[in-house]
Amino acid sequence: MKILIYGAGVIGCELAHRLIIAGNDVTLLARGEWKETLERKGLVIRHAAQFRTTRDRPTVIGELPENKEYDLVFVAMQYSQLPAVLPIVGKNKSRRVVLIGNNLDADSTAATIRGYDPHKEIAFGFQGTGGRRENGKVVSVHLKIGMTVGEAHAQLEGPFLDCLTRAFAGITYRLTHESDMDAWLKCHAALVLPMAYVCYAVDCRLPRASKLLLNQSIDATVEAFALLSRLGYPIRPDGTEEYFRDKRAKWYRTLRVLAKTPLGRLAASDHCRHAVTEMSALDEAFEAMRSRTDTPMPAWEALRKIGHPHEVASR
Length: 315
Known about the structure:
This protein has two domains: 2-179, NAD(P)-binding Rossmann-like Domain (Rossmann fold, 3-Layer(aba) Sandwich); 183-313, N-(1-d-carboxylethyl)-l-norvaline Dehydrogenase, domain 2. The chain is of the alpha/beta class. It is built from 13 helices and twelve strands.
């Protein structure tokens, strides 16, 4: 299959590696010095948890022509970068598009793309990968890698589902099918933003995060779930709300491990450090949802006050 990955950050590069070993013809869209590095050295990934390094040779391009057609297009860009990317993807003749990553506006994102081509088939996904780029390679951290994927308000089915399944055939990559990715992504933001506030509160040095801060982040997430429920969004995936309510101690221990080990740097603080604009955009979008109700969120507000991404951006 001919597959384009629009975006060559950690997520896009790890996805490219997986699709290449599955036997696909993969093109990676990158820009600037990183594009030159990929063309010269290939795609080099240090898989931190697996203690191994891989090198692949995807086709690398810097622009997406309107008349170039792919069986699948994966857009792996930061949330704040999407407004500039959507018209390009919308005008391209490829029919099936999967947008991977944070997104609090799935419906309007899909509508924007279909404004250029009403026949586009659009899905949303999230791949569990963290890490950073350094010294001409990607340092990637993941355990059981895969993607949660679906349409904004329905599971994938038919030819689109068949196409996506074929793309990952024969490799270890788990596709988890979700029936409401719009709600799933909003719930994910309820998890991500409190940890981002914690990261910024300690200058992205997570080992400095106190017990109080980590507990505040849990309280803030619980409050965010209450807000989303009040707005009519289901809490996804199933069991998430109960986990936070009934297994708080277990979640705190998970955050403690994340904060006190190098895993936290790779999975959380590195991204927060290099994606302040994305975190600011997510914060803004979530505040817009908050303004639609009077749901009390004292823990969220206290944490946001000391770890606001806009303050980091202005330093």
